[in-house]
Records
---
Amino acid sequence: MKKQKKPSTAIIPCPVILVSVAHEKQPNIITLSWAANVCSDPPSIAIGVRPSRYSYDLIKEAGDFVVNIPSRDLLDATVFCGTHSGREHNKFEECGLTPVNATKVSAPMIEECPLNIEAEVKKIISVGVHDLFIAEVVAVHMDQEAIDSKERLDLNIAAPFTYIPLTGEYWGIGKKIG
Amino acid sequence: MKKQKKPSTAIIPCPVILVSVAHEKQPNIITLSWAANVCSDPPSIAIGVRPSRYSYDLIKEAGDFVVNIPSRDLLDATVFCGTHSGREHNKFEECGLTPVNATKVSAPMIEECPLNIEAEVKKIISVGVHDLFIAEVVAVHMDQEAIDSKERLDLNIAAPFTYIPLTGEYWGIGKKIG
C-alpha cells in the first residue's frame, strides 16, 4: 500500500557539498544539497542556489566555484556554512578551514575536504526560488591519504555523508553492496 | 597534500533512481544517477539523460516520468535497467517489477520501490552528451510499511543506496549522524 504525500524535493540520498567562491573582500563558503553530476562529457555538474543567498552574486561574478566534499568530521562546519551568511561571517576563519589555491579557477579549495572539484559556470537556468548553475568540471583533487593503492578514492577514509531532505537528517555512508 | 586527477563527474554520494515512463507499446524503466532535487518551490528535480537512450524520446513525448527510489534488495534490477535497452527488453516483466497507476502523470510507478516521485517536464537543457530534464514534482508516494510513527520515511526500511562514480560502486546508507 502506498501513502500519498504532498509534492516535495524527495530524491534521496542527496550529496552534501561545500561550495567555495572567490571574492575581493574574502572568499566565502555555502553548504548546498541541491547538486549533482549531470553530464559525462564534458564532465558537468549543477548546483541550485537561491538568488537571495550571498554566494549567488559571488558565483555569478566570479564565473567559477569549487565543490568541496566534506568528510563526516566536518559536519559542524557544514551546518554552520549552511545556516550563516557570508555577509556577516568569515566562514573560513570561523570554521577553522583553510583556503588553498585551485589550479584552473579563481575560487579557493578547502584544504580540509578530501575531494575538491573545480568548476566553470556555463549556464544559469531559472527554475523557481532556486536558480540552477550548470558548470563544467575543469579539475579534480583528492587528498593523498584518502587514495588507495589503485589511486582511487577510499570511501572509508574520505567518509562522505548524505542529506535526507524528507527527514532533515544527515546520514553516513554504509558499506559497499555492489 | 592534494593529488590532481583529470576532470570527471566527481560529486558523491549520488542517488540511484529508476525512472519509469509511459509508452503505447509498453512502459519502460531506465536507471540513472545524474539526478537531483534542484529547487524547493515549486519542488523540482533534474535528471540527465543521453539523447541516444531509448527512454529519452519516451520522456520527451510523454512530458512526464516517475522517479522511483529502489531499496537495496532491488540492486540486481537496478543494474539490469541501467545496462539493457527498452528497445529489446520489457524491463518490468523481466525484472519482476509491477507498474501501478500514478495519480497525476501518465508514467506508471514501480510498486516495489518504497518511494515514488511523480514529475512533469518543464525544461530540457542541452549540456553535452547528456541533456538535462528539469521537472516539477506533482506528487510523492511512500510505502505504508516504510513510514514511521511520525509519518516520515524510515530509512532503515526504505534502504536507499548510493552510486559512487569515482569507483563505479554501489554503497548502502549507514547511520544517522546529525
---
Amino acid sequence: MISLVETRALIEAGKLTPAAAIGQCLAAIAAQDGDIGAFVRVDPGARPGPAGPLQGICVGVKDIIDTADFPTEMGAVAYAGWRPKADAPIVAELKRLGATVIGKTVTTAFASMDPAGTRNPRNQAHTPGGSSSGSAAAVAAGMVPLALGTQTGGSIIRPASFCGVAAIKPSFRFLSIVGVKPFSHSLDTLGFFAAGVADIAYAMAAVAGRPDLETGSVVNPRIGVVIQDFAGAPAPEGARALEAAIRAAERAGASVREITAPAAWGEIWRLHPILQSYEACRNLAWEHSTYGDSLPPRVKSELDAGRTVTAAEYDAAQAAAASARAAAQGVFAEVDVLLALSAPGPAPVTLATTGDARFNRLWTQLGTPCVNVPAYVAPGNLPVGVQVIAPYGRDGLALAAGRFLEKALGPVMS
Amino acid sequence: MISLVETRALIEAGKLTPAAAIGQCLAAIAAQDGDIGAFVRVDPGARPGPAGPLQGICVGVKDIIDTADFPTEMGAVAYAGWRPKADAPIVAELKRLGATVIGKTVTTAFASMDPAGTRNPRNQAHTPGGSSSGSAAAVAAGMVPLALGTQTGGSIIRPASFCGVAAIKPSFRFLSIVGVKPFSHSLDTLGFFAAGVADIAYAMAAVAGRPDLETGSVVNPRIGVVIQDFAGAPAPEGARALEAAIRAAERAGASVREITAPAAWGEIWRLHPILQSYEACRNLAWEHSTYGDSLPPRVKSELDAGRTVTAAEYDAAQAAAASARAAAQGVFAEVDVLLALSAPGPAPVTLATTGDARFNRLWTQLGTPCVNVPAYVAPGNLPVGVQVIAPYGRDGLALAAGRFLEKALGPVMS
C-alpha cells in the first residue's frame, strides 16, 4: 500500500515530485485495475494541484460523490454519463489543499446492497465488501494513498476490514455530506480509507482544518469490548481477530473490560432498517417512480419496503435512536473508547454479496466515530479488522486510539 | 389569492376540473407576471398529476430546488440553463400526491442577499423580500395556491410578511432538504407559502403523511410575546402589527404575557453570521473558486468572510446554538406558543434590498416551527406579519395556533 504520510515526507524533502507521485498511482492503476475493477473511470492526464498539505496525493472518490470534472454515475444505469455541475464540498476542499482526484471509484448502486464487480485485492475470489467497494480495494491494492467512502449501514468499516486497510467513519456530519447522493440522511456519513491510521489522521486534520486531529495520543487507555448479543455471534476468524486486538492492547498498557450493550442499543440495531428504508424511499422517490422495476433488485426491494413504513413507526425509530445516543454517555463514562469487530469475519468467497453489516449498523445509528484497524489475517490472505469507537464528536480520540492499537498490533497487512 | 383548500373542495365536489384549476393559474401568470417577475420559467403545457390530495393544485418551486423537468438556475449566472438529473424529494412527493409544478420561482443568487428583480404584488415599488422572492410574490398575486421556499436567515417568513401571505418555516429538517442547494446546512429549512394557514396545514399534512398536522386546534392558548432587545426595535408599523395580533388573540381567549429572551438566545442571534458563513464558504467552495469575483457581491462577500472563521469559532457557535435550544425548553414550559414580529416593519420601498432578517435568525437557529400570519396593513397597502412559534417538533401546534390567530384577526389581506 502507499503511505500518504511517507509520500508527503518524500515530497517535502524534495525526494519525490508531486507529478512523480501521481505517475506512480497511474502506473499502479494501469497494472492492476484490469483485474480488480476498483475504478469507474480514471483521469490519465492527472496533474498535481496547488501547493498545499495534500499536493501529490491521489484520491479515489466514490462515485456517489459529485465531481465537476468526472461523470458521477451512482453505480446505476439510470445515471450513466451523468455529470454534476459542481464538486461536492469535500472534493473542492481536497483539491484546494493540493490533492489530485485521480478517478471515481466503484460503488454499489446508490450505495445500497446490490454488489458491483470489484474484486478484493487480497484474494480476488472474495468480495471487497461494499458499498464503498472501489475505494477500499483501490487503497488495498496500492493504487492510491487515499480514498473517500460513505457509510449508511457498514459501507466504510466493513470493506476496510475485508480489504485490510485503515478507515474512518467519522462522527455523524463531522465531514459535510453535501454533494453526496443521499440514501438515508439521518445515517449517511462521509469518511476516508488509507494505508494506516496516521494517513487518515493527516487527511482528516487537513480537510477539517483541525490540526489536533493528527497530534493527539492516548496512554494506557481504558477500553470496553462491547458484547452485542443482538447482532449474533462472529465467525471463528472474527473471534480470533478480536482476541488478537485485546491481547495486543493489553500488552501495550491498555486496561480492557467487557461491556454489555445497553438495551436501547439493541433496540436501534433492530430498528435500523425501518429508519433507513423510510428515508431512502423518499430520497430516491424520483428514481423509484421513474425507473421502477429496472432498478437493481435490492435497491428496489428496500424502496418498496420503505413505502410500507408509517410516519409513527419512523418517529418511534428516531426516538429510539435518541435514547440510544443518550445511553452512550453512560457507557463512555466508564471507558475511554470501545472496541468491536468491524465485520463478523473475513470477506465471503463470492462476488454476489457485499457481506453483512450487522456489526456496523449500531455505530452508524449512534453517530460515533469508528476507526478500522486490521487485526488478523485468516488463511487465504483474508484480513479481519476491529473498530475503535470514541464518543460522538471525539474524532481525534478515535484516531489516537486507532494509532495506539495499530502500533500495539504491529504489521498486519502490507 | 387562490385558496388551496377551496380549490380542492371545488374539485372534489365536481365543480372545477383539475385542468381548469391549472388553466386559471396559467391565465393569472400570463396576466400578471410580466409586471411582478415571480417566475423564472413556467410550463405553458402544465397538466394535472395523478388522482390524489393535491391534484389540480399548482405549485411554484423556488429555483434552488432540483427539478428534472425544468432547469434549476439558483438565481445565478453560473447555473444558467443547468438541469438537475432528479426531482428533489419534496418535488417528487408533491407530484406523487397529484400536484402540478407549474414553474420555477425567482430566488436571490444561492438564496443569499443579492436582490433579484421580483416586485411586491401589494405595491410594486417595494421589495417582496427574499430570498424566496418569487414564491411569496406568486402566492400574493394569486398566480398559484402553493409555493415552496427555503429559509437560512429569514427567507420564508420575511417575504411572507412583506407580501401578506401565510407561510411556514417548519421545524429544522421536518421536511427533507435533500435536492435543495445547500447554503448553511445547519440552518437551511424547507417550507411553504399559501393564501391561508389552513392551506399550509393541508399541504404539510399531505406531503408529510401526517394527517394530524391539519386537524389540531388550540383553545385559550398561553402566548408569550418575546422581547428581543438584542435584535433592535421594530418600525412603528411593526409595533402596530404586533399590538393588533396581541389584542385579537386576547379577544379570542388567549392569555398573553411578555417573555424576555434568555441570554443564550441573544448569543446565537449574534453568532448566526459566524455559523452561516463558515458553512456557506465550504458548501459553495466550487462556485467560490470557479467564479470568484463574478459572483454577486453579497454572496462573494459572505463566502470570503467564511474563510476567515476558524474551526474553534465555528465550534463555539454550534455550542451556543445547542445551549440556546436547551434554553427554549424552559421558555416553553411557561407558554404554549410564542409570538414575534415576522419583520421589523413593512417592505422597504426599493428593489435594492430584500430587507432585514434580524427578527428571523433567532428562530432559524433554534429550529422551531414558525408560521407567518398577516396582522396589519400599513398605508400603501403594505402588510406586516407576525409569526407564531411552537416548540421544536410541534409543527401541528404551530399551525393550529396560526389558524387561531388568523381567525382572531379576521380578514387582513385578500
---
Amino acid sequence: MSLDYSTFDLGDLVLQGGATLRDAKLAYKTFGTLNAAKDNVILYPTWYSGQHYENEWLVGEGMALDPAKYFIIIPNMLGNGLSSSPSNMPEPYNGPRFPKVTAYDNVKAQHKLVTEQFGIEHIRLVTGWSMGALQTFQWGAQYPDMMDLIAPFCGSAKCSRHNFVFLEGVKAALTADAAWNEGWYTAKPARGLRAAARVYAGWGFSQTFYRQKLDIEALGYSSLEDFLVAFWEGFFLPKDANNLLTMLWTWQNGDISANELYKGDFKAALGAIKAKALVMPGQTDLYFPPEDSEFEVANMPNATLLPMPSVWGHFAGGPGTNPEDVKWLDAQLKELLAS
Amino acid sequence: MSLDYSTFDLGDLVLQGGATLRDAKLAYKTFGTLNAAKDNVILYPTWYSGQHYENEWLVGEGMALDPAKYFIIIPNMLGNGLSSSPSNMPEPYNGPRFPKVTAYDNVKAQHKLVTEQFGIEHIRLVTGWSMGALQTFQWGAQYPDMMDLIAPFCGSAKCSRHNFVFLEGVKAALTADAAWNEGWYTAKPARGLRAAARVYAGWGFSQTFYRQKLDIEALGYSSLEDFLVAFWEGFFLPKDANNLLTMLWTWQNGDISANELYKGDFKAALGAIKAKALVMPGQTDLYFPPEDSEFEVANMPNATLLPMPSVWGHFAGGPGTNPEDVKWLDAQLKELLAS
C-alpha cells in the first residue's frame, strides 16, 4: 500500500508543557511544485480531528489554492492520528500518557518541516478552518516576519470561555462512558463517542440550518435521526478517543499569547501579527461567533473582518460541506492572493 | 414537617400515548385569594426540572403577579418529582416504566385541577418560562376560550429541530453513563448527570454572557470551573435521571398541534389561540431563538412579539437569575395585565 502523504522526522520535540515527544513525526501532504525562488508557498493546517485529505476540498486547479501556481503544504495536527498521536505513539508516551500539546508546539513543528525539509524562508499565505484557523493566527504571531498573508476562517486566536464550555460538554459526554476507562480502553468507547457526536451535532450547524432542514434538503439524509447517526456518529466513531481528547485540550488551551514571546498578553500577540489578514468568521457559527473575531481584528494592525454569509454555522467553513460556501471562500482567497 | 404545596388527586389519568397513570397526583402551590367572581386567576406552569418554589421569583407584592390582587396557581409539571413522576410513582409504572407524557397531558391535568378543585371557568393570564412557555401555548390552543391573556417567555409552541438536537446531546451525555443502566439504576448515575450538566452549560447562557464573565462578575462564582461544578453540576445532581428523561421527552415532543384537535396542523393550532398573546423570546437564547417565535406570532391572530433585550441567553427568562431581566419581564407583564 502506498500512502498519499509523507512523514517528516521531527526528532525529539520538546513541548511547552515540559514533556519531550521523542522521535516525533509530522505527517503532511504537498500539492504543486516549490518554485526556484521558494516564494509560492501556502500552508494550510488541519482542523479538530481532520486529516490532510479532509482539507483537500479547498485545493484544486482553477481555485485560489491552485497546485499549478502554488506549493501547498497541509501539515497534520499533532494528535490527529497521522502525526504523533496517542494512538500511534510508542510506549511509554502512548494512549492517555500522550502529553499536552499546544498550538505553539504544533506551529513550532510545522516551522521545522517548512524550513528544514524544504528550505522555505517565506510563506505567501497561511490559511485554515477552525483549529486550522487557530494555527493560522498562531503562525502570524509566532513567526510574524515569515508570511505575507493569513486567512483564518471560522476560528479564533484564543479559545473563548463559551467555546471552552461547549468543549467541556463534548468531553464530559465522551468520558461519561465507563468503557473509556480514563483513557485505558481496550475496546472503542462507542457509547461515549456516539454521545460526544450528538452533543456536537447541535453546535456544528446553526439553528437556521436545522430549521430549513438542510440536513435532508441539501445533504440528502433521510431524516434528522439519520443525520445524527450517519453523519455525526459516523464521523466520531472511527476516531480514537485519546486523540480526540488530546486535540480538544489543544483547542481549549488555544491562545497565541500563551508563550514566552507574549507572556499571556493577548493584545500584544495580536498586535504583533504583521501579515495582512483576512479574518472570516461564520455569520451563524455558534462557537466562533463573529464578535470574537471583531475583537481580534480591532487589535491587529493589518486585518480585515469579513463574516461568511451562510446559515451553515461552523460548517460554512469546511470541510467542503456546502458548495456555495466553498465558492464564496475560494473567491475571497483569490482576491487576497491577488492583492 | 408541613409541605409548602398541595396535592390534587387526578384519579386515573389516561395519557395521549395510551397509558393510564392510575391515582395520579398534581402538586401545586397557590398564592393570594380566589375572589368571588373567580376572575383573578393567573396560571404559571413550571419549567424543565423546575419545581413550584423555583417559580416564585416572579411572584410578589407590588409585582405583576401580585398575590394581593391575583390568585396565582403554580402547577408542577408531570415528571418533575412532585407531581406524578418516575421517582414517586408506585410500581408498576415507576422508574423507567413511567409512560411518555405530553404537554397536552399536562395541560389536561392542570385543567382538571383548575376546574374541579377551584371551580374556575376563566383564567386571566397563563404565563411561563421555557417548558412553562410550551404549556402556556398549549393552554392557549387546547382551551382557547378559557383565558384572556397568555405570556410565554423563552419557549416555543413546538420543539424546533435544532432544539431537539440540543436535547439529544443532553440525553446522550446522561445515558452514556453505564450506571444509568437503562433507567434501572440503584444509585445515582452521577457521572452522567454531571456530563449532562456540562453539556447544558454551553446552551443555557449566551456567548456574550461568558465573554463578559457574568458567571463571575454578576453571579459571584470564583472561576469558570467553579461555575460549571457549583452551579451546573450542583443543579443536575439532585435530580432524578428518569424524571429528567421523562421531561426531556415531553419537551422534545412539544407541539401544540399534536392532538385530536389539530391533527398536527401547527398553523391551525397557532391560529386557534384566541387569547391576546405577548410572546417574549430571549434575544440571545441559543435554543429558543427569536426566529422561531416570529413564525408563531405571525400565525397567531392576536399576538405581539417582544424579544427580551438581554445577554443572559435562555436564563434571561428565569429562574430569577438576573435581577435586571426580572424587572424588565415584570414590567411587561404589568402592562399586559393592565390592558
